[in-house]
């Protein structure tokens, strides 16, 4: 019998734990499905990135021997290097590592998978004749929108950043969406005139060179978008292997005690009775907006669990922090009046709370991870996007999938960067209405999200669509080493 073929797959995540974690998750998933692939992850580290060290240590201690980690060293490193130069400066070491692997005779390189921001490494893969793939951590609709914007820019000479000032009612026909997409929900990165739009669309342009693109979604959720991508012969095959979830949350152990008290509180609330408000790692409110949310909650009469965080000043680069004293920012007496029915806390273990049966609705910023978590947990969302591609995620949930309720779809706020802001305070009336609809036990959106939840649990299993997609990806990688 011929010896079974083996292939080595090399991953290059962008710098930072946030980019490394999902790649490690894909690697683990891959090796549970095949014995023929082993994996090497090449890690770039920013000098300022200290929390990656402990994560890397934990990986090395607990890892499967089929996943190896190699630290890439930069040729030269400067503190405020633009990201593309930073990645570029790791090319020589990447070359050295790859030629070492090839010359050892042990490895047959089946491909390199680049992070969505690391397509510059395609150059290195090309030098060695190794096929390149891209990992795009968002969904199919957003990937299609990115290609569409890039095509408008490069094939039709459109300055897409001008959509920033387009008329309120302007819409675009984008193949991965059933409905026309309003320009006011476009991700701000496309609209940035300071170079970020160009930087991102240049990356997207190179995705077209890839042999395949891995996306974090599943066929049953984005059926139309995935079909539209496969219909376009200028777009590489996509592998929808999601949902990849971040169920353990961001912070480990540090606040275990507090987490336990949260769960205890939820344990005594009736099923689906609590509305949960949480706005992600970059979401924060202060001033009048906090009052409006508080009034909405009181008037709605629902039990609530609210993760409220303090914005850092916009000239001060940094993530939101917890308030030292919540009483100071909330309306007078709010906490006392509502102590039986509600809780306000700082950072929250979102996934664990969403999974709790007491939670019946989720006021969310619609980050892609949160969107997938809400589906996985079967909790309908009331949308309140803040930045990045959250507006168009809200659009997907509300209009395309009819699985969520709109509080806002075009609100924009960035706590550490003054982007094109459209963040007039959302009034208590609007918030209250959203909460009432999302908490309605018999609503259509609840029914839809429950159906999607069931599907999301079956797709990773043998025979499910994401399982099969991963199989096809494995087959493609194996076909490279014949
Ligand atoms: C999304 O989840 C992944 C883990 O699957 C995590 O590494 C990443 O940082 C999360 N992204 C955001 C924006 O929170
Ligand atoms: C994909 O192509 C088929 C065949 O031409 C067509 O019927 C279908 O509507 C297309 N789907 C999308 C989403 O574009």
From TrEMBL:
Molecular function terms from GO: UDP-glucosyltransferase activity
Keyword Transferase: yes
Gene3D superfamilies: Glycogen Phosphorylase B
Region (Disordered): 448-467
Pfam families from the UniProt entry: UDPGT
Domain of life: Eukaryota
EC number per UniProt: 2.4.1.-
SUPFAM superfamilies named among the record's database cross-references: UDP-Glycosyltransferase/glycogen phosphorylase
Class of this enzyme: transferase
Manganese in keyword set: no
Family matches, as PROSITE patterns: UDPGT
Ranges of compositional bias, category Basic and acidic residues: 448-460
Cross-referenced CDD domains: GT1_Gtf-like
Keywords for the protein's UniProt record, in alphabetical order: Glycosyltransferase, Transferase
Similarity field: Belongs to the UDP-glycosyltransferase family.
Official protein name in the record: Glycosyltransferase
Species annotation: Oldenlandia corymbosa var. corymbosa
